[in-house]
Amino acid sequence: MSPTRRLTTRAAALALLTATGCTSSGHSGSNLVIMANVTDRVAMSSVISAFRESHPKISVKVTYADTGVLQKQLPRQLRAGKGPDVFTVWPGRGNPASAETLGNSDLLQDLTLHRYAWDLPEDVMSVSGSGGHIDIVPASYSAIGAIYATNTLKSIGGRPPTTFTQVLDLCDKAKDHGKVLFALGNKTPWVTQLISYSLVAGTVYATQPDFASEMALHHTSFAQSPWRQALQKYLQMNERGCFSQTPLGTTYEQSLDQVASGKAVGVVQVASALAELRSAAPGINLSMRALPASDDPEQTRMPAAVSAAYGLNVHSAHTKEAKAFIDFLASPRGQNLYNSKGATLPAIPNSTFEADPAVAEVARRQKDRTTVPFMDQTWPNSTVQQVHFQQIHNLFAGTTTVSSALKAMDRAFSDSTLN
How far apart are CA 40 and CA 70, in angstroms? Predict the structure, then answer.
């Protein structure tokens, strides 16, 4: 982010601190409607419970929806002047419900004048809006990685792998014990991307951290890059029996059930899945690790970035209540509540937060800077991610090749008119 934008944002935030009587229009009652991703149910429930206690006069109704539903239906509702007051928004750009896409369509209320905007770290601020504005409140800093049920891992005589060869060997060991190493719910479209991202973090971004910028300058492409090796390894893992027997017939929820029941040793998922697993299997011990993409541990990277974030409907009839909730979520208490049970890290850091031991490697890699952005947050339009979903599905269905899949993604990336 440019110094000008940073100063503009922080000056605006300071202006709010010295202003008086700053209220919003459109208030017509106290019923606040929130819509969040189903993967954030545990985290959001903790925040809402505390918010209700501190704001007893505000009635809160919350619903949860799958990523696919949110990305398809939510933008349509907002464009029609409808939809919830507060809702999940994806940081950066790259999908139909991302901060930049919705912000550029004037569907989000500008939150630049809120106090928390002054405290956003540089990398968080860069994906929190567009045009110098802060359009969302970032809630969690999350990661994508291999989540192991440690007792199940020990029962097969295994330990977290640090090389790709060790991953394949562990797949064999899990099969020898009547299990699979990773439950995989590719029937749920957004799940298809997670192993791609985990492998690309090592095959591409470890040596080409500016890969997305290089693509934008037409210096490289998906098809010409080690994305090819990542997808080949994805398929190699499937052929080796690393995954659920029928990934395209397994949902996200079913994949977590397989881990909770001990049928799978682990699952490659976002960190918020830790809370869902603990809810399904109280007492389960879990550990999240990077998924190695090569046999050089020094090249291993973990995708990690702002994960959950929320926006405020520009057409909301309950703006005052919605802003109160936004400010509560951005406070140290709100950030800590959201992340303490969701096994993620606060997107707005504070000194009082204690990281969950299950994500100790995420915290270490964040500090050591051996993380890479979520790939879709840097893509130029919202179609690339959707094409990626479909191409992974097609690869598992046997109806396309790695070369054709990457060419399809290149076509989507190059079409800058899409959003």
Answer: 13
CB 361 within 8 A of CB 303: no
Which helix (H) or strand (E) segment holds residue 34: the answer is: strand 31-37
In 180-318, which residue ranges form alpha helices assigned H by DSSP?
A: 192-200, 211-216, 227-239, 252-260, 273-280
Residue 264 · residue 256 · CB < 8 Å: no
The span from the CA of 406 to the CA of 17, in Å, is: 49
**Exposed / middle / buried, residue 10 (Cβ in 10 Å: 0-12, 13-18, 19+):** middle
Q: How many CB atoms lie within 10 A of CB 1?
A: 14
Contact 99, 135 (CB under 8 A): yes
**pTM: predicted TM-score of the whole model, two decimal places:** 0.75
Backbone φ and ψ for 390, nearest 5 degrees, come out as: -65, -40
Q: Encoding tokens for residue 384?
A: 């690339």
Give the number of residues written for the chain.
419
- 388/394 Cα distance (integer angstroms): 10
Element (H, E) at 411: helix 402-414
3-state secondary structure 328-367: HHHCHHHHHHHHHCCCCEECCCCCCCCCCHHHHHHHHHHH
Tens-of-pLDDT digits for all 419 residues of the chain? 333 333 344 444 433 333 333 333 333 446 899 999 998 998 999 999 999 999 999 999 999 999 989 999 999 999 999 999 999 999 988 788 999 999 999 999 999 999 999 988 877 888 899 888 999 999 999 899 999 999 999 999 999 999 999 999 999 999 999 999 999 999 999 999 999 999 999 999 999 988 988 998 999 999 999 999 999 999 999 999 999 999 999 999 999 999 999 999 999 999 889 989 999 999 999 999 999 999 999 999 999 989 899 999 999 999 999 999 999 999 999 999 999 876 789 999 888 999 889 999 998 888 888 998 899 888 888 789 999 999 999 999 999 999 999 999 999 999 854 44
Contacts of 210 (CB under 8 A, 6+ apart): none
One-character DSSP codes across 191-223: GHHHHHHHHHIIIIITT-TTHHHHHHTTS--ST
